[in-house]
Amino acid sequence: MGQLRTEKVQEFIKQELSKIILTDLKDPRVGFVTVTKVEVTGDLRSAKAYISLMGNEEQKTATWQVLQRAVGFFRSEIGKRINLRFTPELSLQLDESLEYSDHIQKLLTKIKEEEAGR
Hints:
By secondary structure, the protein is an alpha+beta fold. It has a single domain, classed as K homology (KH) domain (GMP Synthetase, Chain A, domain 3, 2-Layer Sandwich), CATH 3.30.300. Helix content is 58%, strand content 20%. It is built from 4 helices and 3 strands, in the order αββααβα. The protein has a 3-stranded mixed sheet. Strand 1 and strand 2 form a beta hairpin. Helix 1 crosses helix 3. The chain is flat and about 65 Å long. The chain starts with a helix and ends with a helix.
């Protein structure tokens, strides 16, 4: 039962954090942001949100700085929207899995082209 509750809380925090970034964060420097995953500890005291950013390096850096400064705002908003005894401590992690998968895809395409050229 505990694992199911943890998974539900993770998904709920992911949805709410996405909504907060999309609708409530009023900073023009925020670019295209996706919350890819949220991990919550078993005691629901801390949560780690994985964020994927799109754009060039300058846009990503500006967006990441804004998101890091807004962690307290995110936590307070999640606390208002979620019915838990304690609001989890929120930390943001940069999710680079999309860039990594794109890199792998390019390598596979290059290998395929080299084999076709032989």
